[in-house]
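Morning F.,

Quick status update on the modeling queue. The single chain you submitted on Monday has been processed. Sequence for confirmation:
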Amino acid sequence: MADREKKSIFKFLREVMAELKRVTWPTRKELTRYTLVVLGTVAFISVFFAIVDLGISSLLRLILG
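Structure tokens below.
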């Protein structure tokens, strides 16, 4: 690896670290709330598609005999 490439990699990593220090990280309470919202949404969508799938399967069974 060329000396120039090493310098650019280290410069990149320094910039990444500086940027990460500027990030506003969520609090534990916010993170818990966001996680529960995501899990609730996934559960709702899963149940919704299971019901739709059951309905379509039942309809096809009725039509096709």
